[in-house]
Amino acid sequence: MTDTNKPITIKTIAKELNISFSTVSKALNNNPAIKEETRKMVLDKANEMGYTPNSLAKGLRSNSTKTIAIIFNDIENPVLTYIFRIISIKMADHGYTTMIFDSQFSEKIERANILTVLSRQPDFIILEPTSMNSTNLQLLSEMSNRLILQGVRYETNCHHVHVDYAHGGYLAACKMLSNGHRDCLVITEPLSFPTSEQFVLGIERAYSEYHIPFNRDMVKTTHSSIANGFQTMQKLWDYDTNAFSIPFTGVLTFDDTLAHGVYKAAMQYNFKIPEDISVIGFDDNPLSAFSMPPLTTIHLPKEKMAENYIRILQSALLEGRTETCFFSSDPILVSRDSVGNLLKKNRRNEV
Fold it and tell me: Checking DSSP bridges between strand 297-299 and strand 332-334, what pairing results, if any?
């Protein structure tokens, strides 16, 4: 009798049928040298015993595990989950499964994720690095032609799906400045995170073009969440004066969840958007169109990004091409109702 607590292997099936290991292996792999009645006998016994092939071991023998590993930060972001979903669906049509890991903007967690992924021998890795200078990328040096980096461009010979966060920051700042908001608070991820630094550099470029000095002390860093966006505003609130401790009329955020934290602060401290403070988000979370008021934001071209990932994966995995690819997408401004015109307001006050 078979011990049901032990995994069913090819050797287990061979012992039950009293035939060789080699015969069972060939039958399960449809080797034409095996007679049809023998193959059917082996398959029936395998099904009866609940045999499940070890896809990892099989993959190691064939140099393919039919897996794609995705290592990102903040996988709760709707833009990212959309991309994950498209990759999973499209590549599943070709027999591939996806593994998804969240590094939570931590180099330590990222390193652990990379080591775990490498132990699984995936056919491809998609990585959103946590740092420009991270030594974690060195762990992937042998996989350059099977690696896609997301975000900014790195000086490494691998595939890139680049998003111009600097341009997004520039568009957001220009929108504020063109409406008279010179003093803007910036709430973003720590600047060690590559796209966060690019976002701020884009804001600085807009200020430079408007010939207005930009004060980096106005940049407040935190990890992306509604709670952290709210807490950033809370730390600036002066309960004695019922006003913010530093003057600003606009808030630029690295993503929409941080902007929604600003909205929560507006409810808490009884200031109005955009009458008192204007707000611009980044990424265009589908819920942002239904905020009160609807949030002006920077739209990440998630459909184009997903398409670029699929193009690289299909080219490398299905067509066998070895050249590395670089695809870049520009975000666009989506104007809604969360930015007020301070110039018009000031003119009305002067009359």
Answer: antiparallel
**Distance from C-alpha of 193 to C-alpha of 179, rounded to nearest angstrom:** 29
Among 154, 149, 144, 187, which residue's Cα sits nearest to residue 169?
A: 187
Contact 325, 145 (CB under 8 A): no
Backbone dihedral region of 73: left (phi > 0), alpha (psi from -120 to 50 degrees) or beta?
A: beta
Q: What is the pLDDT of residues 185-204, one digit of tens each?
A: 999 999 999 999 999 999 99
Residue 348's pLDDT is 58
Contact 24, 12 (CB under 8 A): no
CA distances from 174 to 113, 166, 170, 211, 334 (A): 38, 12, 6, 12, 13
Query: Is the pLDDT reported for residue 291 higher than 60?
Result: yes
DSSP assignment of 160-176, as one string? EEEE-HHHHHHHHHHHH
Give the rounded distance of the alpha carbon of 159 from its chain centre.
Answer: 16
SS3 243: strand
Strands 237-238 and 147-151: unpaired
What are the CB-based long-range contacts (under 8 Å, 24+) for 290-293?
A: 291/260, 291/263, 291/338, 292/263, 293/336, 293/337, 293/338
Look up tokens 């045999």; give the residue.
51
pTM listed for this prediction? 0.80
Question: Of the candidates 162, 160, 166, which has an alpha carbon nearest to the alpha carbon of residue 137?
Answer: 160
Interacting residues of 7 by C-beta distance below 8 A, sequence separation 6+: none
